[in-house]
Amino acid sequence: MDARASWFARNSLYFAWIVSLAATGGSLYFSEIANYIPCNLCWFQRIFMYPQVILLGIAAYRGDRGIIRYSLPLSIIGGIISVYHNLEIWFPKLAEVAPCRAGVPCTFNYVNWFGFITIPLMALTAFVLITLCLSFGRAGRQQ
């Protein structure tokens, strides 16, 4: 492993924590300041993102790479939910299979920047980045 890869592996918990912090801050901004009501799938994604801010923050501070085995499943499951949420937005007929029964429909777009960046896409990006950081940190630990 070269020096740059080794540096990234050593700091991967910090990078994952920063991504989780940004994602959590963004979701709280959209719901509490912009007053966008989260749909059901957004709530499930939050369930898998919010704990990571605390877990990864403490682990990064303490240098505890053992958290990777606990945080990685949270990120992967949250990412799977996010993939499904994006599929519902890209293919609205899919939402008819299991429609939201309360609140805002999961296909409703509050944000559509540049014609493709939506809140679920931002969540998916965060889950993928966290998963990559944790996977890279785990691979760096094994060498």
TrEMBL record:
GO-annotated biological processes: protein folding
Keywords noted in UniProt: Chaperone, Disulfide bond, Electron transport, Membrane, Oxidoreductase, Redox-active center, Transmembrane, Transmembrane helix, Transport
Mode of membrane association: Multi-pass membrane protein
Segments crossing the lipid bilayer: 12-31, 43-61, 68-87, 113-137
Domain of life per record: Bacteria
One cellular component (GO) term of this entry: membrane
Gene3D superfamilies: DsbB-like (1.20.1550.10)
Main location: membrane
Location in or out of the cell: Membrane
Source species taxonomy: Bacteria, Bacillati, Bacillota, Bacilli, Bacillales
Family label: Belongs to the DsbB family. BdbC subfamily.
Protein name: Disulfide bond formation protein B
Gene Ontology molecular-function annotations: protein-disulfide reductase activity
